[in-house]
């Protein structure tokens, strides 16, 4: 029994690992962020808005993984945004890069141990909902953890009660008050017109979806599809962080066999470039109100 449990656990980390990383960070910055922001593909510019920055490359942080994808810088940026102490992840860890699910979510428990209370996740996503337009910002109201359906849940294995309970609730994963605050802020900022609400579905990637897969995801109730976010949110909710999720709809997925459209990463980056200022502004005003 013990042997089976430990072999299925071989990729997870111990409390002491997270503690070591956290203690190192606490020794290297005076900042004590209450808000952590994960910057999705091409959205790393969010971190540039911080004042009094301390930049810590992932490669310098004990036990921290490295980011390899184009458009991700690979550093933590501590600083204040609208007088709130924040830490931004410029570059996240994706399952498709070959990281195991425990490594993908490693930073979240470090944020928890640092004293972070709120996690803001941003990502690029393909729009499945026919009413969505490229450039829309979707407030995530719920998710479908498709890798979780196949056993890739970051909470599998031994549960450490210092982080959270064995069977955490996920029906309240995305904080309703924060989501309402984001909606109100978007309206005040004049971006209410391209704000949407919807369900985000994660696939492991790196392939974009087939037409049949897009149709299936739509039937499942997903409004947008991407390759990130869900594992981090699961771990954040496990340790009690409040979560706000924003997806930038960078492309419309292909659901028609007669279509000549093809999903590609350049389109994702180009839409992100065009909308990045709006998203940054929105996040910064939301943080001001937290
Ligand atoms: N599919 C999956 N992930 C994505 C997409 C998509 O169409 N667009 C941006 N990230």
Overview of the molecule:
Helix content is 33%, strand content 23%. The chain is built from 9 helices and 9 strands. The protein has a single domain, classed as Nucleoside phosphorylase domain (Rossmann fold, 3-Layer(aba) Sandwich). The chain has a 5-stranded mixed barrel with strand order 5-8-7-6-9. The model is unreliable at 1-9 (pLDDT under 50). Helix 2 crosses helix 4. It has helices at residues 2-8, 15-28, 101-104, 106-114, 146-149, 176-188, 211-220, 230-238, 265-289, and strands at residues 35-39, 51-57, 75-81, 84-90, 118-127, 137-145, 195-202, 224-226, 242-252. With 290 residues, it is an alpha/beta fold. Bound molecules: hypoxanthine.
DSSP helical segment count: 9
Average residue-wise pLDDT: 91
Instruction: Give the strand content.
Output: 15-25%
Radius of gyration: 18 Å
> What are the secondary-structure elements, in order, as H or E?
HHEEEEHHEEHHEHEHEH
CATH domain class name: Alpha Beta
**In one word, what is the shape?**
globular
CATH superfamily: Nucleoside phosphorylase domain
| Major sheet details | 5 strands, mixed, barrel
CATH architecture descriptor name: 3-Layer(aba) Sandwich
Bound molecules: hypoxanthine
CATH topology name: Rossmann fold
- Major beta sheet, strand line-up: 5-8-7-6-9
Regions with little confidence, pLDDT below 50 for 5+ residues: 1-9
How many domain regions?
1
Number of strands: 9
Rounded to the nearest angstrom, the distance between the terminal CA atoms is 46 Å
Q: Which bin fits the share of residues in helices?
A: 25-40%
Helix/strand-derived category reads alpha/beta
